[in-house]
Amino acid sequence: MSDRGDSLPVVAILGRPNVGKSSLFNRLVGRRLAIVDDTPGVTRDRKEAETQLGGRDILLVDTAGLEEAAPESLFGRMRASSEAALEQADVAIFVVDARSGITASDRAFANWLRRARRPVILVANKAEGRGGAANAMEAYELGLGDPIAVSAEHNEGIAGLMDAIVEHLPEVDAPSETEEEEDEKLLRLAILGRPNAGKSTLLNTLLGEERMITGPEPGLTRDAVAAKWQDEQGPIRIVDTAGMRKRARINAKLEGLSVASSINALREAEVVILVLDALLGLEEQDIRIARLAEREGRAMVIALNKWDAIEDRAAARSRVADTLETSLNQLRGLEVVTISAATGAGVDKLLPAVRRTHERWNRRVGTGALNRWFGNMLERHQLPLVEGRRLKLRYITMPKARPPTLTIFGTRAEQLPQEYQRYLLNGFREEFDMPGVPIRLQLRGTENPYAEEQD
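The structure corresponding to this sequence follows.
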């Protein structure tokens, strides 16, 4: 049974590569979360999503394909990850391919599932068309009960499968008020970076388990994979993503899907942890990722990984700081935490930095304090002339946070030069302790209906 205590019942989807597990996962979740491609072995890590079936909330887990392989090989590590998913599951869905028929591997894994003492739902996928149901009957020989014939691609038989899943779910208590409050406090994180920077190793270290498949092979993670855990301040949902290479190097369709999945994870996050390889420093692609996070309004912390391999640490820090100053000035004051994801050194400092950054990203400044500061800034540096006429800025508000957003009203405010805008933004960061978070500045000129009233 699941060891997740009072959390959602866990349903794990297992089976050989390319039998349609990820397509089935997407169909049950009701949206495209897992990458689907004809290439065998696309899914390498466990992917989780909360969904509702028949009025019951569940945690659905997509797994890597089950294959017979040496433990130290990539496929061996993928199988170990799938076995770990089964350990945590309350219900297992075993998927076979009705189109290609039952294989020796299917029989071997069916025997393994029988020994696991979990409720198993046998699903014969790709059973569309006239002969589909007849082909599905071949799965009876596995001794796992009546096979449910479905076609994940064509949405056939899915309703019956949902009913079967609900029938096998354990009884659970209704969520308490405390659990509902925790959901509201949930911090959403995404780990981004170039391939082989150590993103998956970092996630495993944070979770204290081998949640992600890691190894020397670059680009192991292909999909955005989420996990939940908790620190002293509350629940956290963290997403590990595929490495993001330069667009010019993304040739294969599969890698393009991986990058798109990473970008979606960034957009759903509140804070991004940008993992850098300290041996390489802050390179052009890292800057592109950071700028993308800033454009999307996400808060960010840099994890400078593989710090244990750096000999001249002062020089390495200086290089990163110089690059941040010249290339990411719009995120001035970004927190940089030096870590070794492999050994765990420094990782304990990462979440406190994330929490500090998240608090700033959420912070609201009252209109009174904001306008007192604004008046001082205008007195310190006179507004410039534009087309021979002096601009007149009247007042400032902060209509929203997440990210902090400032709106300035005044006569021809929309013509305020970029240099003066930077002056105001830098002053705001310093006055209200807002380093390292993106700040939006909106300018409302005389077209504002309240402008005439202020004359």
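The chain is about 35% helix and 20% strand.
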